[in-house]
Amino acid sequence: MATDIKSLVLAKAKIYARNKPDSGADENDSEDDTKNVQKVSEAEKERKREKMRLKKQKKREARTKTLKKDTDETKNAAINYLHEWNSSRESWCFKKKQQCWLLKNVFDTDSISDSDFEILLNYIIELKGAAKSRLIEECEKVVKLQEEKLEQSASDEDVANTTFERARSLLQILF
């Protein structure tokens, strides 16, 4: 296939050479043809590279968009699960995926608001088994890290303090 493209490009270059004004040097014609073929083939390669680059970029953007959409849907499902647990336990049923998301994001103030965190504290009181022990370990790590990092900038302290306060609240409830 590459030879077909080269032969087509060479044919185009010869046609171009025939149609351009005659300079009177036949030896230069073959050199010009070779240069034209090289220029055309390089331009063709560059065009293909750009096309592939754009195609990959579109795929990346679509993947990122889908991932963000899935993340938002998962967050909404978990928060709705928590609200259903709080408001109507008769119709509520346990969903491990939602519980895992809640426990994984328990310290994230962007994902779980303060009002939802209060409901989550009540949910965690009834937590049992390995999930409870993993949460205790996580909280202890956060508290230990906070104690070690007392000398940070003010902006980091706000986020760290919120995480620390949440970890302390959880430890108080779990013990």
From TrEMBL:
Transmembrane segments: none annotated. Residues 33-49 have a biased composition (Basic and acidic residues). Residues 80-142 form the WKF domain. Residues 50-62 have a biased composition (Basic residues). Pfam families: WKF. This is WKF domain-containing protein. Residues 17-70 are annotated as: Disordered.
